[in-house]
Task: structure prediction
Amino acid sequence: MEQIYTYGSYLKSKFGCKVYKVGINISGFTCPNIDGTVAKGGCTFCENDSFSASTNEIKDLKGFHLNLNSKENPFLEKQLKQLKTQFETITKMQMQKYGAEKFLVYFQSFTNTYAPFETLKALYDEALSFKNVVGLSIGTRSDSITDETLDYLAHLNKDKEIWIEFGIQSIYDETLQKINRGHDSQNVKEWILKSKAKGLNVCGHLIFGLPGETKEMMLETAKESYGWGIDSVKYHPLYVVKRTALGNDYIKGKFTPICEEDYIDVLVESVKLKPKNISVQRVTAGIDDDSLLGPKWCKDKNKQIKNINQTLKKFNLKY
Ligand code: SF4
Result:
């Protein structure tokens, strides 16, 4: 049985032990697809409020949001403190529970390059200064990163492990329009190629089950993304949560989510098409609370993984 090359095994072989991701949410960050710069309301599946718990941690910051043109950031000191507190809280738990030794700081909520360069530099530098941090993983959109930031990340990448995670979702512009993505596929390709040219590590997010997409389209998205030189991939099924535009469509019967059988089918095909050097960070996603509208199979992630492995087994593969 061939073990699929995972991101965890990549990090382990590089750093000699399991590396734990430390998810960070910084108050004051937003997304150009939410603040009206490129669109309002965000991607149709995005439940913006779900990010707000920790983004409301800094009280007097409520309503303050950074963007690429912000001239000043009066909350930087508080954001740096927030970063430190979150890091210490999470890593303490990871050390106690799992004996964790090394960490990768993951800037995960909203768009983590969508702020003035000085703010980003301060946050990235601070995160890298923490004990036993081997690098950063920065979740962002391809329309929200500047050459200056990319150059700085490339500079940091000389001594540390720097990853940028881009949402690709689909290579079809008509699909990106349907989900109110706010940028086209060419933009994603351009910034992935640029990041790779600077030697950065790139992870691409792909979503299967987007409105109007066929299996062939989903496989084309996977193939094309692999061809852009991504180093790692995250595969997601599109699930529907409450308080989203997609949720409204779902309730009105205008959107039918992908069924588990079709998802596993396209996922396994995509994995088989994947060059072996691209590591896999996730094969599915789920949400086990009452915000999930559908599909119900996305509730139980363990069961999903079991079912995925059952199908992979037919091809002598395991995750
Ligand atoms: S880019 Fe991310 S944060 Fe922004 S609206 Fe889309 S899913 Fe939400």
Observations:
- The chain has eleven helices and eleven strands.
- The longest helix spans residues 76-98.
- The longest strand covers residues 161-169.
